[in-house]
Design goal:
The complex is a heterodimer. Chain A has 9 helices and 3 strands. By secondary structure, chain A is mostly helical. Chain A has one domain: Tetratricopeptide repeat domain (Serine Threonine Protein Phosphatase 5, Tetratricopeptide repeat). Chain A is elongated. Chains A and B meet through helix 1, helix 9 and strand 3 of A and strand 1, strand 2, helix 2, strand 4 and strand 7 of B.
Chain lengths: ~200, ~130
């Protein structure tokens, strides 16, 4: 136990959700794309289905980003974008580029890719999530809030959005946890709502 | 000097008599303890629950009342949840009460209360920020 409440207040002010979550969030996006890449690997050849990777650079780029090799991941994803066939691959590449540049701390470039993605598909909640993260990192709170709301409208239960929301809340409305123990045996008014 | 010392003692005494202790644990969580033992015996070791990370993340507050029996040694037995506002707080409250102990009985004493209850309140207090926009 720490008796110095002044010190502890500083500790409390630290966000519950740390900076490492940006990388974590980016990884979630990458994993989705990696799955997408595998999903699109099904090729119909006559009456046989052959498994294979159609857009290798896109998949390898996602793997590199997942492994934390952001420079290499971004390079491969750019290559994957040039070879992208269809809307899904293009959107996956743009999403990963946004996440990759976000992980590299190049927020302006990341923002450009997120916005290109949103022009193509304005119901891509991952793009809103990524762009909200960029706004959080650049302390543009109103824009971050707007993107979080839009993302939550599109996919309310998404864990990545909850994490982004927590990052926003910790930055804008930080809280200190307090636990009170009451041995008096009196009924707590708030227990009325107990189920 | 003497007056100052007396005043300090008075404040300390008042603080103790009021039955409230406030401090912060290693994780920076404020914890406070309201004296008034419904167990009939004074607490010896008070374990505090951890504020669940997800509850803090999603800004969930609440309270849990746990009821329990005390054996002769002052150990908590048969702890159960009496009421709660959110299920996320049940496990930490149960864990905390099971790790708490109370005064043991003297050889000639008998257990007078069959069951005691303790309420854990999980609160989140807004902190003032000094965040400045770039």
């Amino acid at each position: 136990m720490v008796m110095n409440t002044a010190n502890s207040r500083n500790i409390s002010a630290r966000p519950a959700v740390g900076r490492g979550y940006v990388k974590l969030l980016a990884l979630f996006l990458m994993s989705w794309t990696a799955l997408n890449a595998q999903d699109s690997n099904l090729k119909e050849t006559g009456n046989k289905t052959v498994l294979g990777v159609r857009n290798m650079p896109l998949k390898e780029g996602a793997d590199a980003l997942l492994a934390g090799q952001y420079q290499e991941g971004v390079r491969l994803t750019h290559q994957g974008l040039t070879q992208a066939v269809g809307k899904r691959e293009e959107e996956a590449a743009l999403s990963n580029l946004c996440a990759g540049y976000l992980s590299l701390g190049q927020y302006q470039t990341a923002l450009q890719y997120c916005e290109v993605l949103l022009v193509r598909n304005d119901s891509n909640w991952r793009a809103y999530n990524n762009r909200a993260l960029i706004y959080i990192k650049t302390k543009q709170w109103d824009k971050a809030e707007a993107d979080l709301i839009r993302g939550e409208q599109l996919n309310a239960g998404a864990r990545t959005l909850k994490l982004a929301r927590a990052m926003y809340m910790d930055a804008v409305h930080p809280v200190a946890a307090e636990i009170v123990i009451d041995d008096s045996g009196k009924k707590d008014d708030r227990e009325i709502d107990a189920d | 000097m003497i007056v100052k010392s007396m005043l300090t003692n008075l404040v300390a005494l008042n603080f103790l008599l009021s039955g409230w202790f406030v401090w912060a644990d290693d994780s920076g969580i404020y914890v406070s303890y309201a004296r008034g033992s419904s167990a009939g015996r004074q607490p010896v070791k008070t374990a505090f629950p951890k504020y669940p990370v997800i509850a803090r993340r999603d800004r969930i507050e609440g309270a849990v009342t746990v009821c329990f029996r005390l054996d002769k040694q002052g150990k908590v037995r048969r702890a159960r949840i009496k009421s709660y506002t959110h299920k996320i707080f049940k496990a930490p409250a149960l864990r905390a009460i099971r790790n708490s102990t109370f005064e043991s009985l003297q050889p000639d004493q008998k257990i007078t209360r069959s069951e005691a209850c303790r309420t854990y309140r999980f609160n989140l207090n807004q902190i003032e920020t000094t965040t400045t926009d770039d």
